[in-house]
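note to self: dont lose this again. the chain is below, predicted strucutre after it. 98 aa total, dont forget to put it in the shared folder this time
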Amino acid sequence: MEISKIGTVTKELLGGAELEIYNAADIEDGKPKDGASPVAKWTTEQGKKKTLENILLAGKQYVLIEVQAPVDYAIADPITFTGPREAGGKKPAEDSPF
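---
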């Protein structure tokens, strides 16, 4: 799965965005619950996408949160998404509800 921060006007891949991914169950009112830890976190690099491999479980719900936006950009709203079903996503355990 690839994730990037793209400028709305320039359509360029932006650097300097601090992003975190949480399990959806750890989010309340768009923010991490006290004590919640991100599944992944990184700062975007200019002109580059972030590839997440073998981190997210296929079919599980996650929330992407922008903690800090690049200079001259606003922080984006949280995005809820489902873990990838293609290569690079982990299969859930057989007893998992996902």
